[in-house]
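#onboarding

Welcome to the new folks! Below is a worked example of what a typical request in this channel looks like: someone posts a single protein sequence, and someone else replies with the predicted structure as tokens. Don't worry about understanding the tokens yet, we'll cover that in week two.

Example request:
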Amino acid sequence: MLRIAWKNLLHDKLKLATAVAGVVFATVLMNLQVGMLLGFTDTITAVVARSPGDLWIMAKGTKNFDMVFGQPERRHYQALATEGVAWSSRLIVDFTLWRTPAGGSEQVIVLGIDPECPVGLPWAMSEGDVGEIFRGEGVIVDATERNRLGGPGGLRLGDRIEIKGHRARVVGFSKSVRSFTTTPYVFTSLRFARDFAHGLDPRTQVKYVVVGVAPGHSLTEVRARLLERLPEVEVLTRGEFMRRSVVYWLLGTGAGIMSILAAVLGLFVGGAIVGQAIYSQTMQKYREYGTFKALGGTNAELAGIILAQALFTALLGYATGVLVAGVVGRLMSEGRLLILMPPGVVVALGGVTALMCVAASLTSVARVVGLEPAIVFKA
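Example response:
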């Protein structure tokens, strides 16, 4: 059956190319949309996921990492005094205005890092030293933002810039540190972030207190102690905070829903093309199938031939489509948009594509199953 199915496909190479093109289209669209969705999720949760903090203390009503109200800095010291807390770190996150060397302006998100406990931010560098932000008015921006924040000539190490009326110096460039809002992250020390931030009392407030749980202590118990000591705040685990941010941005704003709908649309369009091509191939060989049946071929064998054609088409189209999607995804990820295509997801989407092609061939299967062998004797 497999040999017959393969020869049927090769008999009309134009129809085969059409069917394969449909699968390639569906594959590229599905993989890129799902990869984009995974990239969105990674970008949304990047800072929280890469921090060693077990618990995050924040103002009540915080919906995502980037948008948060200030809270008194004494929360940091209260957390340190709580049983089971190994360490506590202060963090400032705020939108502010960056003045480029060329005189232009850009909105940025300042991240003020606690010099006593930097919590691993930024997590990757392409140039410079993270420690420089604690020695003078230094800032670190991502390498992909050189032109955006530096004007026509691009930013260089040592460039002097201005943030909210305060002078600063570029001391490094992070690597692949993206913001979901596309507003660039700017890392600096806690001290200078207080000057750069808007709407923040520079003497008494921070945005987050990040806590590490001491070995031998239960995360649940330490969280309960913190809530008992600080009933006016929220205390979330790393996973809870990541999920809250993802739900807000992907479901609350509709970005995730649109990505899912686009992937489903690609599946249906590709399925329609494959179904039409296989149906056309089936009808073209309708009498041959009748002859096969008259010679003793069973309905199961006929159905197997058509399903094998669908699976061959799926294999050819998906292999080609994954290669195309991989190249496109890599090129897109060099900029501000991250496309993630983990092997497990690629394999799962391959299974979905195979099912799509099988489903698309069912109409053809139904026609040959109901075929009367006597058709070969009709004029």
